[in-house]
Design a protein that fits this description.
The complex is a heterodimer.
Chain A: H1 2-34, H2 42-54, H3 58-89, H4 91-105, H5 109-120, H6 124-148, H7 152-160, H8 165-203, H9 208-217, H10 221-250
Helix pairs in contact in A: 2-10, 3-4, 3-6, 3-8, 3-9, 4-6, 5-6, 5-8, 6-8, 8-9, 8-10, 9-10
Chain B: E1 4-11, E2 21-28, E3 33-37, H1 44-52, E4 59-63, E5 70-73, H2 85-92, H3 98-107, H4 123-136, E6 141-145, H5 153-170, E7 173-178, H6 181-187, E8 190-194, E9 201-206, H7 218-230, H8 243-252
Parallel strand pairs in B: 3-7, 3-8, 5-6, 6-7
Antiparallel strand pairs in B: 1-2, 1-4, 8-9
Helix pairs in contact in B: 2-4, 4-5, 6-7
The chains are: A mainly alpha, B alpha/beta.
Amino acid sequence: MMGQDSRTDVSARLIRGLSLLLVLLCWQLLAWKVADPLLPSPIAVVQSLVHHLREGELLHHLLKTLMRVTAAFVIAMVIGVAVGLWMGRSRTANLALDSILVVMLNMPALVTAILCFIWIGLNETAAVLAVALNKIPTTITNIREGARALDTQLLQVGEVYKVPRLLTLRKIVLPQLYPYIMASARSGLALIWKIVLVIELLGRSDGVGFKLGTFFQFFDLTSVLAYTAAFAAVVLAIEALVLRPLDRRLNGWRS
Amino acid sequence: MIPLQVSLKHKRHEGRAADTLSALEFKLAAGEFAAIVGPSGAGKTTLLKIIAGLDTRFEGRIGLAPETRLGFVFQEPRLLPWLSVADNLRLVKPDLDDDALEASLLRVGLAGQSRSYPLKLSGGMQRRVALLRAFLIRPELLLLDEPFISLDAPTAESLYTLLLDLRADIHPTTLLVTHDLREALALSDRILFVSKSPARVILDHSVNLPQRRRRDDACVAQAQAALLAEHPELLTGLSTVSPGAARTLLESV
């Protein structure tokens, strides 16, 4: 059984790797055929990536962006879970906040960004807040669904045995919300990555978004793709090193 | 140990035309073990929820101090699946140290299971944990809502023994809800028979049988036969019993 599993595992990896390789190969062939600086080959992109890592400030900008992503992500998750839980459990809260939520959900990222930069100023706070504001409503919507589906029978156990509120939250309520929180974290990270670059392009003088803006002005597509590759690597690393292990830990009791 | 006084005037579930419970009154002495027997849907679970404070939308009075230590064993074990047995127990008793934990698990026949997750345990074992959880807080009042439902006979019998053993230390005033007359006769000192919804007490029966009897004992079977011979309407056709007839029933006991 184990042998079978590891064999399927190996072949699964092989398929994943091969498909990626095939895409790269096609890209490389196409780049050779076209031979135009506006379609850099994969090899050129890798060379550029190494160059930016060695000479340029890729790490500096990547780190800046990463910090903004982290701050916005944490703020959005904490506020989103708290408000979502509240709206899911209290009819009054839901009635009071629902229309605001719908407006917020449909607010274009560009509008929140412009408003934040004009009202707060072209600074870090405005940038992080603008990103967080885009993520908070979707988190609220997700968590609200989870809060509505909480198991009354288990909540009654806490009530009968007079389990303190904070302990009830940690041991009875949050574990039921973990699937919703994880789903929200995954989609949230994706959304935040996308928005943070736009915000950096608009109102910051560092970060990946700012650099991409600069390369855009010089039509330096090789560098654009090099930065994108570095970025993709970070996303994959977060998924593999943070989200997947966390998922396994939280779901340990199921196996 | 505390007495329990219940006097309910009305309880109606939202959107229902008729009362689930009305004019239901009884009193349990401190340390007494009483059973409530009645047909399914009579509102027995609702009654326990009201006594436990889980349902506050009713008219009437429950004579129970809010700080009463209350143990509740539900129809399903209701353990938190993401917490180990130890953490499930510590949820209700945070100061439970490892030695006390192991000792109490040994007591209920679950030695070495402290780190198991509930879903890995059999139904009978989960119910043992649920019983232990109720007793760990040293309850003054113990409410049992058909806790032995859908168990095979030997498992149920072993849980009866466990319940009586645990009860012998602390003697909580106990109210068992069941629709199984045999179970009520085997466990309790007193049986309150209730009618179909809206439930009212139609017979208050004292059980005078030897202590520590088993469900299959001849004395239990005889008591059951005698009760049903004397009151054939007790478990069936309860809807036809009018309040007046119920009063005569009560007086005839």
